[in-house]
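This week, work through this protein record:
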Amino acid sequence: MSASLIIFVKNPELGKVKTRLASTIGDEKALAVYKQLIQHTAIVAKESKIKSLVFFSQQMPSNNHIWKRDLFDYYQQSNGNLGDRIEAAFKTALAKYEKAIIIGSDCPGINPDLINEAIESLDKHDVIIGPALDGGYYLLGMSSMHVELFRNKNWSEPTVFEETIQSIDELGLSYKALVALSDVDYEEDWEGLKHLVRSE
C-alpha cells in the first residue's frame, strides 16, 4: 500500500518558535535548537523511505537546504486551530496515498524504525498513535479519514491524547499506541534529549 509521512513544520523565525524554551535560554538559542530539531526530523524522514509531505506554517520556501525539493513535497498548512490544520493535511495526503501518518518537528526520539512500525501497523489497526509525555501525541496515523479525531479537542491542554483515544473508542475503531516520547518544550527537555538529535 502506498504511504505518506506528513510533517508539520514552523517556519524558523526568531522569536516565533519554541517560545517556552526561549523563556529560559533566549530567542536566539531557542531558534538554533529548533533548527537542529528540524534537521533531525528531515534526516529521519529521508531514512524512513516514505514519501514525505512537508506542511509549512507560513509561506512555503522556493527551496530549502533542509527540506530539499527533490526529496520532499511542499504544502501550506491551512487556517484554523491545530485540529483544523491536521484534518486538512490528512485529507490532502489520503487523497493521494492509502496510508498517512503525521509527525511534528520537535521530537528527538522519533526514528525511522518507529515511523515504519506505524505504517506497517496500519495493516492491522484503524489508528496508530504515539503518546507524548506532556499529554498530547507526537504521531498519528490512519488509512481512512476520521474527522472526529480532530474536532472538539483542547489542543493547548495535556488532555489531547486522552480525548483522542475517547473519540477512537466512540467510533468503534481499533488502535495501537506506540512508545511514549517527549517533545522539546522546556530547557530540561532539551538537556535530556539533545544527545538523540542527529545532524548531517
Notes: Residues 3-196 form a domain with the Spore Coat Polysaccharide Biosynthesis Protein SpsA; Chain A fold (CATH 3.90.550.10). The two ends are 30 Å apart (CA to CA). The mean pLDDT is 95.
